[in-house]
Amino acid sequence: MSPPQWVKDLKPSPPQGSDLIATEREKSQISVDKLSNFLFTKEALERQDRILAILKSEEVFDKSQNYFHGRVDRFKVALARAKRLRQLQVKHNWNADDYNVANELISEPGPYGLHSSMYLTTLRGQGTPEQQKLFLEPAENYEHIGCYAQTELGHGSNVRGLETTATWDPQDKTFILHSPHLTSAKWWIGSLGRTANHAVVMAQLIINGKKYGPHPFVCQIRDMKTHEPLEGVYVGDIGPKFGYNTMDNGFLLLNHVKIPHVNMLARFSRVDPETSKYVHPSSPSLIYGTLTWVRSTIVLQSGGVLARGVTIATRYAAVRRQFQDRDAPSGTLGENQVLNYTMVQFRLLPLLAATFALHFTGKAMMALYQENQKKMQLDAERISNTARGAGPEETHSGSDLLADLHATSCGLKALGSTTAAEGLEVCRRACGGHGYSSFSGIGSWYADYLPTTTWEGDNYMLTQQVARYLLKSARAVLKGKAPNNDTTKIFTTFLQKQDMGAAHDILGSDSDLVAAFAWRTSFLTFEALKHRDAEKNSWNSLLVDFWRLSTAHSQYLVVKNFYEALQSESLQRELDPVTIDVLHKLFRLYALTTLEKEASEFYSSAAVTVRQIQLARTKTVMKLLEEVRPHALRLVDAWHFSDWQLDSSLGRKDGKVYEDLFYRASQLNPLNGLTIDPYPDSGVLIKNDESAKFKSKL
Amino acid sequence: MSPPQWVKDLKPSPPQGSDLIATEREKSQISVDKLSNFLFTKEALERQDRILAILKSEEVFDKSQNYFHGRVDRFKVALARAKRLRQLQVKHNWNADDYNVANELISEPGPYGLHSSMYLTTLRGQGTPEQQKLFLEPAENYEHIGCYAQTELGHGSNVRGLETTATWDPQDKTFILHSPHLTSAKWWIGSLGRTANHAVVMAQLIINGKKYGPHPFVCQIRDMKTHEPLEGVYVGDIGPKFGYNTMDNGFLLLNHVKIPHVNMLARFSRVDPETSKYVHPSSPSLIYGTLTWVRSTIVLQSGGVLARGVTIATRYAAVRRQFQDRDAPSGTLGENQVLNYTMVQFRLLPLLAATFALHFTGKAMMALYQENQKKMQLDAERISNTARGAGPEETHSGSDLLADLHATSCGLKALGSTTAAEGLEVCRRACGGHGYSSFSGIGSWYADYLPTTTWEGDNYMLTQQVARYLLKSARAVLKGKAPNNDTTKIFTTFLQKQDMGAAHDILGSDSDLVAAFAWRTSFLTFEALKHRDAEKNSWNSLLVDFWRLSTAHSQYLVVKNFYEALQSESLQRELDPVTIDVLHKLFRLYALTTLEKEASEFYSSAAVTVRQIQLARTKTVMKLLEEVRPHALRLVDAWHFSDWQLDSSLGRKDGKVYEDLFYRASQLNPLNGLTIDPYPDSGVLIKNDESAKFKSKL
């Protein structure tokens, strides 16, 4: 329905959003390009632009109906896109990174999602050369489409509690996969519901009646031609979710399904087909390493995930005007930009600071991981040569560095994904009423991101692993047997200075600000240690303390990594002084608002004084908000999101917010095709819809 | 697709959810019925059951496809339900309360929503007898279907900034309604998009070129027979939203639309058609009162809104088992109920306490409102007799009580709706992975509730009104001219004791606990007053302080109201000692966890000591969680939600969580009707769907 001419002639009331946002950009001297290049590298940005051009030219990736489609249509379109994306990958010879960039630009989970990630990764990582030939090759050619079936209806976090069984049959040398209960159903499995024809099934290995814990088995589940489920397989989609509805998360029940011996992935542990003996895993710490890698990736991504919301909300706050300033002289014309209100700044700008804080932390984590991975490889080879056949417990001793990195990644995954998820919702609300419209682009992005707080370790569960590690480190420090790493260093400092007390100059010195966070972590660790070891409190009674401890530790790491990034030679070389100064202010803003929010722990540990927090709260933070505010637009621009990627009326780079909202509502909205009959007693529901099936029910 | 027999034979692994939940209920001696009756009255519960039976017997109210439908289908079904509900109202002679109960049970916004609330209310409240005859009568008979068009594309909170104009034409004695800009489009208007044929349009009244501010005008927008928009009217639905998608929130542009003189609602102000003179409103404080009423309702409802999430999460936490207790002796069989973990208790039980806290506060607010309304009526009559013709400013003096109630309702509306919205998300996450499934019933409920944080005053904007009132009261107290109310009383106490300091025994005395909250509010008020009056800081620079102040004041009120409810004669009479004891523990849990979360302000005001908070945190709160836990199931049962209303697999009263999740996924899910072709290069998308329109695009 094209609008009449008088509607087409209307413009937003002045000043125009495009002028406001242009003026806003002029307020800052930050070099957006330099900052973008520093954050992502020039090569990565050029690649992104190149791939974006390809996607935009393909009709199947047109996003204009995304917000209107129901579940079934969204899935169909997502499937068409997944297929086309694979074709483009082949055509343009994209590597895995290119393919990931394309997926990020499309910004929706797709039906091949778990095939191209977990299925291929698992086969590569856990398959023997023979198995790779058999399963990985057809999967890489998309002749097999697979998924990774671990979680069950009754078991998520507790992998050891999985119910699905894989029983070794020495007679015909097969495994029998079976779901003994309804709760044994595999559940939440991405790409399983409608798409996959193969699955890696995690099942309890049973040999001669003895259980050996969960192991991975490749299982064909659908016919390669008809795509119908095979005999003994009951499979389907688990239904709609809060988000992620372009993905067919599925369920799977297996009724005594026989698979050959070769289908148990055997790189790390296996069953000897002749003797029916179980052969123990050679190096579990390498698997351990993969999880650390995945979590580090989540930390790095959390900055960018949050940055989308911050970009949208900040741009809209520069265009949106509401009320006059209460202290403005009477007669002042025009309303105030929402971004000028301190209440809006206080909600948005600390999140803007968090995007950079998380990004730098993620980068530091990845670097540390790669460095350690090299060492681990050497360790693993050594262990493999000397300790083959030993159980998993004995092989852990050689991996102190990884233990630190593992714990760090657990805590930071929890903090990063929680910060991003909750921050996105803050951004959405900071957009006022229009934030609730799907066209804001934040709601669906938030809803799709939410599972990240649960998968790869539930954010609350993970904090126990962090606490366990910190307690262990603290015990080692007390015994004088600690390995030399950052954690033990801050504990040692704390123990040395504990009696004298700390005098952290948090308002004057950056390193003191970092040290205050280290002090709080150390204090909470030794408190928890006292509760556990001296007072013998139960583990369960300390879970809340552990969660607080893990959060404290992770916040310390984020503050420290931001601080170190600012000192780094590459930053000093690549960025100009104005930008470095603003980033420094963002560091202080992140650190001080975090400190203020968690003030109670900083007081009780005597890391800071009440007076210092009061000053930080009422003066320093407010001053920082004022100083960062003129740079807000350029800072979000540096995140380099294209309008196509954001798909947001409110976050348009050109500020044409109201035109875009109006266009989508009036021109793209299928509901406006219905002319209803509004009266309760009429027999007609929709005047122009023959399928108005509720007619007869009235 | 009916499952094969081997699937039908499967049961969840033992113990069964139904047994777990039954055992759980046996742990407590609380009388659920007595508590329900006390909360809602026996009559209200019986009415609810009676109406529930009627709705369940009507096919159109069947909820089984709600979570699967896309926007267009959801709207169609909602329209059919709205029509049928109106028919039932006539058939059973339901009053407004009955009708509201039915809507609450259906639990989705409907296309008649704004007609039956704001449109009718506005006509009743602001129409003259002649106008009521003309507009209200056909609206009450559903011959007119109306809506209330205030918010515009460019203006939400700032009503004075509305752009739509109503220009008086003395020639033919009409008003010309006009939208001068695109941003003047009415936007977000419930029931306008597809349903309404009339609207109350708020527009800037202009007489002889002079502006008189926003006023209400009745405007027909669609043809009574064809339902097509009238000439000069451009109207439609604004598109999908994060929630509320059963409602047709609409837009409206008007191009010089003429309406007769009688269409300006004239009970409070009007234009004299002969002289073209503006006649000033006689009693603006009565309108002021309506807003207070609406906000008080939101406070009362917030308890119940949150209780749905808490009910679902608590029941599921009693059924769900994950991991063994880490300290359990080795060899212990079976996993631990999730509700036994302190980390889960710490997230859920303070919210359970908040449901009761908000409920009691809402009830107290409503009672206070009604009491004051009587006084106001007398005031209004007095003013109307003596001050007719005076401007709005002069008539405010007589309404000190209402000013207090108004400010209180603003702050509590913000706190209550924020607590409910954010609490629901905490409940959803506390359900782990399955919380993300639509079948949890929390996600959609949360998404539909979210706008409450924005409408009837944005929760952040409202805090300014609270602060303004508290500053005014503080100034009056300092001048010795304060009216006698609770606010001025706590300020006076604070000023008297300020120098001696406070010694609140928050762990030993309930009244001291309440007093500590009063102390903190008073401290923050006088701090803010110093910043504003002595240091002459700008209003804008104090917005964050004002928001903190408003939150502190509202938390004080909630704690005080909970405390007073416990002392009330009716509670002591109607409930048994066990229940009263548990409610008392909930009071302390709510107060102490709130105090601990906001610890920093309690320290700096010297309302409590660091040592007290540390004790509260590590000992008292953990003890309270342990003591409340056995009663959790019965406490949520007392909220009296039927399974039909909750529509949640996880929140089933009988604990059959896994059976219900499986049934909905496998039997109700339309996506499972599609058999796809999984290969990227095939020309086929969906094997069994002729309309697979993306085929050609591959």
TrEMBL record, chains A, B:
<dbReference type="InterPro" id="IPR036250">
    <property type="entry name" value="AcylCo_DH-like_C"/>
</dbReference>
<dbReference type="InterPro" id="IPR046373">
    <property type="entry name" value="Acyl-CoA_Oxase/DH_mid-dom_sf"/>
</dbReference>
<keyword id="KW-0560">Oxidoreductase</keyword>
<comment type="pathway">
    <text>Lipid metabolism; peroxisomal fatty acid beta-oxidation.</text>
</comment>
<dbReference type="InterPro" id="IPR012258">
    <property type="entry name" value="Acyl-CoA_oxidase"/>
</dbReference>
<dbReference type="InterPro" id="IPR009100">
    <property type="entry name" value="AcylCoA_DH/oxidase_NM_dom_sf"/>
</dbReference>
<keyword id="KW-0576">Peroxisome</keyword>
<dbReference type="GO" id="GO:0005777">
    <property type="term" value="C:peroxisome"/>
</dbReference>
<feature type="domain" description="Acyl-coenzyme A oxidase N-terminal">
    <location>
        <begin position="32"/>
        <end position="145"/>
    </location>
</feature>
<dbReference type="InterPro" id="IPR055060">
    <property type="entry name" value="ACOX_C_alpha1"/>
</dbReference>
<dbReference type="Pfam" id="PF22924">
    <property type="entry name" value="ACOX_C_alpha1"/>
</dbReference>
<dbReference type="GO" id="GO:0003997">
    <property type="term" value="F:acyl-CoA oxidase activity"/>
</dbReference>
<feature type="active site" description="Proton acceptor">
    <location>
        <position position="456"/>
    </location>
</feature>
<dbReference type="Pfam" id="PF01756">
    <property type="entry name" value="ACOX"/>
</dbReference>
<dbReference type="InterPro" id="IPR002655">
    <property type="entry name" value="Acyl-CoA_oxidase_C"/>
</dbReference>
<dbReference type="GO" id="GO:0005504">
    <property type="term" value="F:fatty acid binding"/>
</dbReference>
<dbReference type="InterPro" id="IPR029320">
    <property type="entry name" value="Acyl-CoA_ox_N"/>
</dbReference>
<dbReference type="InterPro" id="IPR037069">
    <property type="entry name" value="AcylCoA_DH/ox_N_sf"/>
</dbReference>
<feature type="domain" description="Acyl-CoA oxidase C-alpha1">
    <location>
        <begin position="288"/>
        <end position="471"/>
    </location>
</feature>
<keyword id="KW-0285">Flavoprotein</keyword>
<dbReference type="GO" id="GO:0033540">
    <property type="term" value="P:fatty acid beta-oxidation using acyl-CoA oxidase"/>
</dbReference>
<keyword id="KW-0443">Lipid metabolism</keyword>
<keyword id="KW-0274">FAD</keyword>
<keyword id="KW-0276">Fatty acid metabolism</keyword>
<feature type="binding site">
    <location>
        <position position="151"/>
    </location>
    <ligand>
        <name>FAD</name>
    </ligand>
</feature>
<feature type="domain" description="Acyl-CoA oxidase C-terminal">
    <location>
        <begin position="512"/>
        <end position="672"/>
    </location>
</feature>
<feature type="binding site">
    <location>
        <position position="190"/>
    </location>
    <ligand>
        <name>FAD</name>
    </ligand>
</feature>
<dbReference type="GO" id="GO:0071949">
    <property type="term" value="F:FAD binding"/>
</dbReference>
<dbReference type="GO" id="GO:0055088">
    <property type="term" value="P:lipid homeostasis"/>
</dbReference>
<dbReference type="Pfam" id="PF14749">
    <property type="entry name" value="Acyl-CoA_ox_N"/>
</dbReference>
<comment type="similarity">
    <text>Belongs to the acyl-CoA oxidase family.</text>
</comment>
<protein>
    <recommendedName>
        <fullName>Acyl-coenzyme A oxidase</fullName>
    </recommendedName>
</protein>
